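Researcher: Good morning. I'm working through a list of sequences from a screen, and I'd like to move beyond sequence-only analysis. For each chain I'm collecting a predicted structure so we can compare shapes side by side. This is the next one on the list. No need for commentary yet; just the structure.
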Amino acid sequence: MKKVALFLANGFEEIEALGTIDVLRRAEISVQTVSISDELKVTGAHDITVFADKLFTDVDFSAIDVLILPGGMPGATNLNEHHGVKEQIKTFVSEGKYVAAICAAPMVLGKLGLLKGKKATCYPGFESQLVGANITGENVTVDGTIVTGKGPGLMFDFALQLVEIIAGKEIRKKVAEGLLWGNKISD
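Model: Good morning. Structure tokens for this chain:
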């Protein structure tokens, strides 16, 4: 089974991070949360504090198959300023491994030049930071091994797309049904 690392930076968007972790774990996908600071305690953009599974310096990234970057501010900026995170992203892309970013976090990929000529989406207002990307405006965009999502209200679309990539369409369908995702709610 593929292993996932989700980066947590102070100021992360809680819905995008925690919701994605929840959806992936419902699909029985191994997700490891990784603090990019020097402590396991990380506080989100809306003052929700969580404890990461590991510190960045303690992770063997060669054993990881997918990297996920949640957005949020200043979380996405903190990810963009972390040299190690950027090096891992470049390595993953060069090795053909998946990298997924949602909301403001696709800016990290854009500033690294990894979106040139690729389709991508992001939170409205961050398009200029996706250097060279063909902006789709879609909820989720997949171009090769790069997955981008638009924002917090679309976290389920983003996370379920990752489930499909990692575990297949049947598992995606099963998880979506269990979440009642896509069911119409009537009065």
